[in-house]
Amino acid sequence: MGNYQVKYSWDSYSKLIIVSFSVLQIMRWRILPQFMDIFYHILTAWGFIQAGGYSGWDFWQYAPVGRTHIYPPFLHIVLAFLIKSGISKIILVKFLETAAPITCMLTLWYFVKRNYSSRLAFFSMLMLGSSFSFYSSLSNYLPATLAMIFGFLGLDELFKVRFVRPALLFTLCFYTHIGMSWFFALSVILYGLFDKRYARVFFAAFAFALILSAPMLYKQLTGLRYISISGIGNEKYFCEFKTIDYLLAFNAIWLLRKKDKKYRLFLAFFLSSLIFLPYPYRFINAQGYLPIILLSAMALDYLYEKFWDKRRYTKPLSIFLFGYILLFSPTVAMNKDMEKGGRIKYKIHLADSALINLLLPGRNERIFSSLVWLPNEYLSLSQLIRENSLAGDIIYSKLYLLGIIASSLSERASANGLFPEIAPSGKFDPFLVSKLIVVPQDEDREMFEAILKNYHLQKVGENRLFIVYKNYLKSPSGDKSAKMHIERASLTFKAISLILAVWMLLFIFAGRIEHFLCKENRLNYKCAFPLTK
Fold first, then answer.
1. 285 in a structural domain
2. How many domains, in total, are found in the chain?
3. Looking at the structure, do residues 394 and 457 belong to the same domain, yes or no?
4. How many C-beta atoms surround the C-beta of residue 454 within 10 A?
5. Do residues 458 and 388 both lie within one domain?
6. Is residue 22 part of a domain?
7. pLDDT tens across 113-136, in order?
8. Structural domain span for residue 215
9. Can you say whether residue 485 is alpha, beta or left, with left for phi > 0 and alpha for psi between -120 and 50 degrees?
10. Backbone phi, then psi, for 145, in 5-degree steps?
């Protein structure tokens, strides 16, 4: 009975944290979406709709020349189906950015609680709540968050010594996000090497997932020659470093030698996170921070077990430590000051946990400096664009983010492109090919005056933040080179629907498939793993 009460208490504490974050996340509805990537995903989904399904050529960005499209399409396909069903794009992106972090927290808590302990699951929620940058990334990088959810669900199935459902879930990872799919793939391989008890089932699931993901992997391999790491921009200059979190995590690596081999999964996570090194911000603050959360939670779990109730002062000291992590959690933030010649500056934020920043968003300038959703201005801008352009016309802005947002909302192709790691397929003059040019009101007028004269741009409308100019050098009808060239789908929506239906049937009947493969040695070789532990 006593053990039940303790277990119930840890679960209750975890649920309290999750519910608190859920309420605070829902309260952010008004200011969402808050990051640029979601507009890329909406624009890509619109491109798929124009193509009639999945297109391996990105004709909706860097129009009219386009570029190869190697981004995993699962989220974009889901968005395309939802948009085609009539759901408002704005409601859709608000819902996704609201639900993503809550769902990820629930999944992580479920996985750790089920496969380790309720107490460790609580400490995992505690450490997740200490990092505002990681928590924000769960909303900002939706495909990565979705792949993270699939990955943990797949690992949970693997620990049940199953391989069909894990393989199907890891396949979804490969079709959702490149980085997170290989993060989990490497973790599966490394853990199989660390713990021989699960080696066969882990390797079997990995091999099956690779086979199912072969079309996507082939597409990405053929597109490697177009990728340039130098295109990641200034992201690396905005890293944020935690304090006590790293100390706890590195201490946990030492503690692994005393723990059951199952805990070596966290070490596998840490080693696999090195694949994010080309993207320093994501390695330190976003997807690569996940192992730090789990390792530091393991260290807290060890400290609790070793010292709680052993000394009179340890209980209040532990409560202080938990409160410190959840409420304060100092951060050393890095920033590149463009007004001072790109000088790197560092600033210490003393109370910088996710919980505090959600409770008191006004005290953190980083929250509102990254705010991109201004509904009145963007919606009136999209209306202005639609009124002064036709389907197939191209729009452009010197501020590439503005160009992508305007295109995604107005349903027009863009001469801009997000994710500059993949360059356009050819050179072109974006002002010359674009029907409309969107300019911020605070644009340097003297510099822009020459562009106005050279391209004979004429203002057709404006709002509080933006001015829209029309390009009269561009032929309104005859110049087909200055139109979006739609690349027909290589996989239609009907074919995609059929594939998804087959995936669901395989997932539902996974147990029977495994039973058929392994019972009575039907494949004439020793079954790679037992049906039960």
1. yes
2. 3
3. yes
4. 11
5. yes
6. no
7. 999 999 999 999 999 999 999 999
8. 88-369
9. beta
10. -65, -45
Nearest Cα to 292, choosing from 305, 310, 274? 274
Residue 335 backbone phi and psi in degrees, to 5: -150, 145
- Shared domain for 362 and 438, answered yes or no, is no
Same domain as 477, residue 388 = yes
Q: 203 falls in which pLDDT band (50, 70, 90)?
A: very high
User: Residues with Cβ < 8 Å from 169, sequence gap 6 or more?
Assistant: 150, 151, 153, 154, 157
Token readout for 66 is: 């386009």
Residue 83 included in any domain: no
Where residue 229 falls among pLDDT bands split at 50, 70, 90?
low
Residue type present at position 251: N
Is residue 349 within 8 Å of residue 333, measured between CB atoms? yes
CB neighbours of residue 464 within 10 Å: 9
DSSP annotation of 326 reads: I
- At 67 the three-state DSSP class reads strand
- Per the listing, tokens 């979601």 go with 38
Instruction: Assess whether 471 and 432 both reside in one domain.
Output: yes
Each residue's pLDDT tens digit, 358-406: 888 766 666 655 556 678 889 999 999 999 999 999 999 998 889 999 9
Q: Judge whether 7 lies within some domain.
A: no
DSSP letters of 348-396? EESS--HHHHHH-GGG-HHHHHT----HHHHHHHHHHHHHT--TT-EEE
